[in-house]
Amino acid sequence: MSRMDFKTQIAADLLTWYRKYKRDLPWRQTDDPYRILLSEFMLQQTQVDTVIPYYHRFLDRFPTVYDLANASQDDVLKAWEGLGYYARARNLHKAAHSIATDFGGTVPDTYDELKSLPGFGPYTTAAVLSIAYDRDHAVLDGNVIRVVTRLFDIGDDVTQTRVKNQLWNLAQALLPKGEAGTYNQAIMELGAMVCTTKNPACDQCPVQKYCAAYRAGDPQRLPVKAKKKPRPHHTLCAGIVWHNGRVLITQRPQNGLLGGLWEFPAGTQRDGESLQDTCVRGIREIAGIDVEINDRYRTVKHAFTHFSITLHTFQCHYVKGRARPLLCDNLAWVLRADFDAYAFSRTSRKLIEYLQQDEPDLFAFEHNLREVP
Question: Domain residue spans in the chain?
Answer without folding.
Answer: 3-221, 233-371
